[in-house]
Every structure is written in C-alpha cells, then in structure tokens.
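Anyone else keep sequences and structure tokens together like this?

Example one:
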Amino acid sequence: MKKLIPIVLVLLLISGCSANKYTPVINADYKLSAVYKTGDFSYSCIIEKKGETVSITPISTRAKGMIISCNGKEISFKRKNFIKSFRIEEIDKTNPALILYRVLTSLDSAQTNLIDGEFTYTGKCELGKYILTQKKDNSFSSLSIPQADIKIEFM
C-alpha cells in the first residue's frame, strides 16, 4: 500500500502537466505587412483589422491601393472615389478579406497547440482546413489553407 500511494501521486502530477490549455492573445486591432500566395501568383499587401472589419490593401500589383474589406455581412472594394459593396453570398469564397475574416472569427473553435515556440491554430473554413501560426509576442507568422493552395506569410 505504501508503494501504491507515491505511484498514484506521480501519475496525478504527470496527468496534470499534460492538460495545459494554451490561450494566446489575439490583438483586437492591428496592421501588418504580408505576402499573399495562391499557386504561382503572389502579391505584397497590408492586412488590417479594426473592430469587426478585416481589410487587405495590395501594394505590389495592378490592384495597388485598392482596399478590400469584409465586415461579416458584405465585402467592399474601395479605390480613390470608387466604392462598391456586395453581400458575402455574392463573392467568391477565395476572396482574401473573406478568408481572413472567416478564419479570425472561427479561432474560438480551433484546436490550439504550442509547437516550436509558436501557437498553432488548426480549424476549418469554407475552403478546408486552415493552419494559423502566431509567435509568442502575439504577432501572426503565417496562415495556410493547403486544400485551396493559399498561404499568407506575415512580415
């Protein structure tokens, strides 16, 4: 009996250590540089989140300066004096602002792990499984959706 008590205590201690739940902080608002890649095509952009709106502004293609925003209900395209909005249902699922909005709003249901010093969120969106990595300083590292051949590298 005396030998059984220490073994039980060690097992309880070990099982308590493996039950860590990582809960990194997702900053409410941010503005980041990134490279958006799909297939052989890529472009540099600025990704910004303000409140409930995610915006992408390409800075290296013919769409340079166009702001593509998603607020959960509609997608807006803005460039100089031009503004056009569409309901989400009318937009292709591969729209980068829509992808980011859907991923960021689904993180509560994503599986979170700490791998190689980065937090890794694994979840599902309309395009398939996504993997979002975040550094310990809470800045994003990358987002990939392998089934759709989409990757965003944050700078």
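And example two:
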Amino acid sequence: MASKCPNCGRTLKWYDFKAECKDCGVSIPNFNWEARLEEDAELSEKKFAKFYRTLNMFAYSVWGTKLRIARIIMSFIPIIGFIVPWGALKSEGESVGIDVIGIFTDGQSLIKLFSSFFGNSGLYFTNMAYEGYSGPITYTMLGVLFMVLCLLMAVIAFFMILFTNKHPKSKLMVIFDCLSIACAVVSGVMFVLAGKAAPAANAFNFGEYPMINATGGIMWGIFVAIALLCAALVINILVAKAPAKTHEQLEEERLAKKAAKEEKERLAAIEKEKAKAEAEKKAKEEQERLVEEARAKLAADKNKKK
C-alpha cells in the first residue's frame, strides 16, 4: 500500500525523499506528533496488559497452587521408571536387559540394543521373519517399541501442561497419561510373551546376540513405572476437577498487587522525604547552635580584653 501525506492525503512516490509534502508543505515526520505519540503509548499499554495477562495465566496454570506444583513435579518423576529394568532375556550365551545402561540386568543394555538395531535393522527383521513374527525376538522388540511410546506419551503430557496454560482445567494431560499407562501395560504383556516363548526357541540369534536356552520375562521396573505414571494421572485428574481462577480474577489480583506495591512505594517515598526534611532541620539547628556558641565565645573573649 502506497504511503500518503497525513495532512492532505497526497500519495507519496518512491522518489519523494523530502520530509515536507510538495502539496501542503507540512513536515510529514512531525505532523501531529503529539497525537501519534499518545496513540503509540495507548497501543503499548494495551500490548503490555495483554502480555502481563498471558504471563499471569501461564504462571497460575503451571505453579499457581500447591496441587499444580505437585503436578509439575510428578511430570518429571516418572522418568525414573524408564531407567529401571522392564524385562530381560537371559541365556547361556548373550543376555539382553531392558534397562537403559544395564546396571540392573546382567547382559546387553537397552542403549546397546538400540545401537545394534539401528546399525543393522535388516538382521533383526530377518530373525523376526524366521520365527514367524511370533517369537521372543518379535515380542521383545514390540515391548521396547511400546516402552518408547509410553515415554513419548509421558513427555507430551508434560508439554501439554505448558501449551494449555490458557485453559487451566484442560483434560489433555489426563488423556496422554492414560495412553502412556496403556502403552506400559502392553509393553509388559509383550515382555511376558517373550519370556514364555524363549524356552521353546532353544537357540536363536537376537540380532547379533546368540541366545541359548533363553529364559526371561517381565521385571520389577515396569511396576515402578506404572505406579509413577498412575500417580501423575491422579494428580492431573485432581487438577482438572479443582476450581480454577478465571482470567478476570487473575487480572484483578494482579492489579490489586500492583496497586498495593505502588501504595507501598508511595508511602516509602513520603517517609523518605520526611526523614530527609527532619535531617535537614536537625542539620540547620546544629549549624545555628554552632554559630551561637561561636558568637558567645567571641563575646566572652571581647569582655576579657576589656
């Protein structure tokens, strides 16, 4: 859209470099600058009010009550459940443990299993095809897949707390918590099936790991994970059912706090001025006293000379 002179409405060309309009001679940058300055101030005030309102709602939605503080904490704690072992396949050859770094199970850790799978995924699919996609390898890999999905749903539930701050009673976190628990349960079922299928397979290759007379199944870590996820679910349900303040209530509280702060600052400024005036008064009185003492001493000296 072409620019126009704010006074006469003349359309400005690209070669009009002068500050004054050719038709009316008004200075375009300085035309009605006071009114434009007031408009800019009003616009800035509205934007800042909107920003403070959004920030206030975000703070309230995330940590505005004790229950919401508990929720944000419980969103992190279930991570512990993904470090401990969910399942394992042990054999006379290699062993595979479904915990992150292998400190709870005697065998290859989940990190090494991921590294092996993504390094040569074709080998794993070949092994799964060989057992007809219904053996210990398939069930274990499905268990790991649902374990990853469980973690993903838990992470999404956490970010929903941040993204739904404008809707403090949103139930999206509850939905993703339920999905996360469902994935954990399915993952546990897969590890149980893998443990039951392993003895019948006798000897097989789990990717690049040889398994001989394998046994295995579910482990205690998955119960810890499900318990922590259920605790997070309960907290999210309580938050969704608890009364929540509206935008208007939060704005009234913010303005009340702002007014109280300004009043406190005003009273402090008055007290400061009073203290300053009192100090000046005392200094003046002290100066007058010193002058009087000096005059009296001078008068006494004159009397002695006489």
